[in-house]
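Researcher: Please predict.
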Amino acid sequence: MLIEAMIARVNCRFLWLVAAICSLFAITTCEKVPLLAPSGSTIILTASTNAMPVNATIDIIATVLEAAGTPPHSGTVVTFTTTLGTIEPAEARTDVGGRVTVRFRAGPANGSAVITATSGAATTGANGAVKIAVGTAAVGRVSVNASPAMVPANGGSTAVTASVFDINGNTLRSAPVSFTTTAGTLSSSIVSTDANGAASTTLTTSQEATVTASVGAEAPPPPTTTAPTTPTTPTSSGQASGTVTVNVASAPTLGITPPEAPPSVGLPANFTFTVTAAAKNGSAVRELRVTWGDGESTSLGAVIGSAVASHVYDDDGTFTVTGTVTDAAGNSTTVSTSVTVIPVARPTVIVTPTPQSAPGGSTINFEIDIRAAAGVSIQNVTIDFGDNTGNQGLGGVTGIVTVSHRYAAGVATYSVRVTVTDSTGQSTTGSTRVSITT
């Protein structure tokens, strides 16, 4: 009995050793073989967004569930793949809840990233993959504006800005924007959006222009046919465009009508100025300024319609009259005409004495006929009787006037002079002679 007991104890210790060795071998083997999801498991992928800029990163979460709906053993390995960009890390282990989080880096390329995950026989499947639009593939809308929306009549520049939004309505940065215009020139034709999703270029034009900003794939070329066609929507996704029309301001018009007859020096010359505000893309008239060609200028203010302005020239000759009308937007129109100014005719003065010869102590009557050119007035008339009695002022008389003067005794001949000064500053002299006989 003692011997049998000893043999049984030896066998038991051997079996325990064998079991321990096998257990150790099994543990070592399990540590070297990855733990994968059991058959019948499913993998669910989720992402924080379905659209993102290039070179951006987001979290991708994979949730592994066994057939019974419970998470697998902690440390189950999940492998990720993507058609665009990279997954970091590409292989990760689940936590106790069957979840694993990795980072998707979009990289510099535009396009659509399709992300899948597998673990053993479990996979996301065709319908479970996460699809993320990257860069221009994510574009949803392009809004374009110009500041200012109108350039001056003689041309100018305006800043054209395109704001790019993704399919979720968020601004899209680092997206190349292609600008085209129907008229004028653009400072840049391709500009990438900034951190605020905006891209800008400068349009310089003197004609109405429509600027188009396009992002993403371009539309296919139109068919080569002369028949009318209906525009079609391109089949490629990830494209959007917007337009803005930049108008050219219209300047007011101006006409100048000079006097019908050549004006005279020192007399008012009347000019008619006709101003018409622009009917389209115009602004209110601010000022009409006239330069008369003789070094003088006049502001006629905000003229609308017809206005008559007068100017007096001090010299004869041909002068260029220029009018410049300016509106509130700074648009201006300049028109010129010429005018020939002629010398003004001097007044005529005829002096007739009655009698022309008389004895000393006689009174002689002088009929004075003064005529002035049209528009000219007589400012002053003086008569010198020639006998050193001084000049007699007659004021601003015109027409026929009679003046009497008594001469002293003595034989003499006297020269009588009448001086007329007109409103132009010219002086004219008429004269006659009288004789005193005794």
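Model: Residues 139-218+237-248 form a domain with the Immunoglobulin-like fold (CATH 2.60.40.10).
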